[in-house]
Each structure stands twice: as C-alpha cells, then as structure tokens.
Amino acid sequence: MENVSALEKLQSLLVKIWKRHSDRQLAIKAYHCEFAVEPKMFLADGEVNPEVMKLLINLCIERAKPEDYKNGRIKVLGDKILIHDHRGNLLVEVTDQKLVAKAKNPPA
Known about the structure:
By secondary structure, the protein is α+β, with helices and mostly antiparallel strands. Helices cover 38% and strands 20% of the residues. It is built from 4 helices and 5 strands; from the N terminus they run αββααβββα. The strands form 2 sheets. It has a 3-stranded antiparallel β-sheet. It has a two-stranded antiparallel ribbon with strand order 1-2. α1 packs across α2. The longest helix is centred in the N-terminal third of the chain and has 16 residues.
C-alpha cells in the first residue's frame, strides 16, 4: 500500500479539479506525443497558486446556494467577497473584480 501524505493527496485532488474545470488547458504537441501542461498547485512558500485559487473560488460561487448568502457564508461587501466556513471563520477574502461581479448576482 502506498504511503501518501495529506499534502500529496490534496495536490492530487487539485490537479483533478484543474483538469475537469479549467478553461486554461494547455497541451504541447510533438511529432509522436502530446504533453499536458499543468500549473504548480503550490508555490515555494506553501501558498496555493493564484490561478488555482481563482478556479476554486469561481467553483464555490457557481455552486453556492441562496442559503449560503442568507446565512453569511458568502458575503459581498462593495468591492470584495468574504467566504466563511460553517463555523463563521473567514476562509478567504477575494478582491478580484470579475469574481466580485459574479458573486453580486447570486442564484435566486
């Protein structure tokens, strides 16, 4: 049985999410083969790659239910979005204006 760390499992799951949902798929085609290019999921300082983070936040906003906005898990405050966990702890503050605009039109 393979001994896989939690970080390796997380990275594997992030790669699967990237492959399934990203519109930024890049392939390099050679004469007899093709190489898929994937971003590094984590940067040298241990932070999540910003492009991967944008994809995750975009998926969170797309899949949010009206209750998530009503109970405060997702708050849109002017030019930023605050996303909280189920206990009310702040997970992320988003200032990307495309994501903010998308969150300002939540599902009905």
